[in-house]
Design a protein that fits this description.
By secondary structure, the chain is of the alpha+beta class. It has helices at residues 2-13, 46-54, 56-62, 156-181; strands at residues 24-29, 33-42, 68-74, 78-86, 91-101, 106-116, 124-135, 140-150.
Length: 182
């Protein structure tokens, strides 16, 4: 009986909304793609927010889902990092280029390569993201957009996991920014 109740509660939690600290977020998907949008308002300057969103030490601090992050190449306005993720039955290794365009208030992120251990899971074939930081009257606004395409259809359960991970990322990022505002 107790086991049945636990299964029921677990099943119900799959359909409950995730509480997010983020000011505003949206997750849209089709069979092989998803798009995640996030808006955060902050009292920090555009310059300080760009530093938090670009600088490797800050990114490493609020991107805790990765098992390992390693700087591969560092240049004036871009760097490449390798991100390794390991779970019980899954591991992946990807390389991303992060570019700072301060005059436009942008940080762009693009996937350069992706490898995974398990062929059962959909493979990422395209990843693009950007932070667009703008100054408003008394605050700055961060508009974050992430677009991902997979090599095959993604089932609803896998999409739920992705959405939960993105909401978790949004909460960590906003928490990090709020701590910098103090």
């Amino acid at each position: 009986m107790r086991f049945s109740i636990l299964i029921l509660l677990s099943a119900l939690s799959l359909f409950s909304p995730v509480t997010s600290l983020a000011n505003q977020s949206a997750f849209n998907h089709s069979e092989k793609n998803y798009r995640f949008n996030l808006t955060i308002k902050s009292s920090l300057s555009v310059e300080k927010l760009l530093e938090l969103l670009y600088d490797f030490k800050h990114v490493n601090a609020y991107s805790s889902d990765a098992s390992k992050q390693k700087m591969l190449r560092d240049s004036a306005n871009y760097y490449e990092i390798e991100i390794s993720i390991k779970y019980l039955i899954y591991s992946s290794r990807s390389i991303y280029k992060r570019t700072l365009v301060p005059e436009s208030g942008l940080v762009k992120i693009e996937m350069r390569s992706f490898n995974q251990s398990n062929k059962l899971f959909p493979r990422i074939i395209d990843y693009q993201a950007r932070y667009d930081v703008k100054s408003e009257m008394e605050y700055s606004t961060i508009e974050y957009v992430q677009m991902v395409s997979f090599d095959k259809s993604v089932n609803w359960f896998y999409m739920k996991i992705l959405k939960d991970k993105l909401n978790e990322f949004a909460e960590k990022l906003e928490f990090y920014i709020r701590n910098e505002e103090k």
